[in-house]
Write a structure and sequence with these properties.
Distance between the termini: 31 Å
Radius of gyration: 17 Å
Order of helices and strands: HHHHHHHHH
Strand content: under 5%
Number of strands: 0
Helix content: over 70%
Structural class: mainly alpha
Number of helices: 9
Shape: globular
């Protein structure tokens, strides 16, 4: 078992959540929710590979979920919501309900489900991999939210537009996969 490989996989699995968090951070100012969102993403990056290792082969033969199309729809929805917020004259910040946080965390952790299917080929201690994935995604998501907020404070509306562009690029990236 190579812990470095598990760490690199954990960082790689967290890149979608980092990009999403960076975009959301430009519109979202509640640090209490930053921790909650990051924790939910971390938990899903533990649960999804676990489910993948337990149920993956069975579900793969029964149900096909095109995660790229699901992520495309999610990112388009977030992008539209951010564009509406950008042109909203009120000083309301982008708000994320607990249900939205759970849905977003689920969506950005779908790729970790597939890692779970093959986790036994990577390590003899799958639980260690799940914990590493959870910790990586928690911290990387939290950093993305903080960086998004920081860029908004420094660059204002330009940071919001940049966040919208990132979300839309992510959406179309998943559409063409």
């Amino acid at each position: 078992m190579n812990i470095y490989i598990l760490l690199l996989i954990g960082i790689s699995l967290s890149m979608d959540s980092f990009s999403l968090a960076l975009s959301i951070g430009t519109n979202y100012n509640d640090k209490k929710d930053y921790l909650l969102y990051s924790l939910i993403v971390g938990i899903f990056h533990f649960i999804m590979p676990f489910l993948g290792s337990v149920l993956g082969n069975i579900l793969r033969n029964i149900v096909y979920i095109d995660s790229n199309k699901l992520l495309f729809a999610l990112f388009i929805f977030i992008g539209i919501e951010m564009i509406v917020d950008l042109f909203n004259k009120k000083e309301n910040n982008f708000k994320m309900s607990l249900l939205n946080m759970i849905f977003f965390a689920f969506s950005v952790s779908l790729d970790s489900f597939t890692i779970g299917i093959g986790i036994n080929n990577i390590t003899s201690i799958p639980l260690l991999g799940f914990l590493i994935f959870m910790i990586c995604s928690f911290f990387i998501t939290y950093i993305g939210l903080l960086l998004g907020k920081l860029t908004y404070k420094k660059f204002g509306i330009i940071a919001k537009v940049f966040g919208i562009v990132i979300i839309l690029l992510l959406a179309f990236n998943h559409l063409i996969k």
